[in-house]
Amino acid sequence: MTPVTEEIARKLRKHANDLARAGSNLYRVRAFRSAAIAVMGLQTDVTELVASGGALALESVPGIGKSLATTIAEYVSAISMAA
Fold first, then answer.
1. What is this structure's pTM?
2. Burial class (CB in 10 A: 0-12, 13-18, 19+), 8
3. Which of 28, 29, 52, 75 is paired with 15 by a 20 to 30 Å CA distance?
């Protein structure tokens, strides 16, 4: 797993924990945790996946829906711009 993929998974887990602490909808908390697991299980680096197909490519990954695909693509973009 690449450092960027690990960072994305960490951000998703952190967001899930923040939502849980705030008493947010359990479905949203589970969705973020599921997306973190899905990202960690990718055979391809998340950066490459986003570069090749954007958020649509992420939507094809089980456990990642449209909204989370957009969020992950934004995370990737932010990390890429910071590097």
1. 0.91
2. buried
3. 52
Q: State the pLDDT at residue 15.
A: 97
Of 12, 19, 14, the C-alpha closest to 35 is 12
Q: What does the pLDDT look like over 29-47, one tens digit per residue?
A: 999 999 999 999 999 999 9
Picking from 12, 15, 66, the residue whose alpha carbon sits closest to that of residue 57 is 66
Q: What angle do CA 74, 31, 80 make, to 5 degrees?
A: 20
A 10 A CB-CB count for 53 gives 14
DSSP 8-class letter at 61: S
The residues, any chain, with a CB within 8 Å of residue 26's CB and separated by 6 or more, are none
Residue with tokens 């990642």, as numbered in its chain: 64
Which residue pairs from 56-62 have beta carbons closer than 8 angstroms and sit at least 24 positions apart in sequence? 62/38
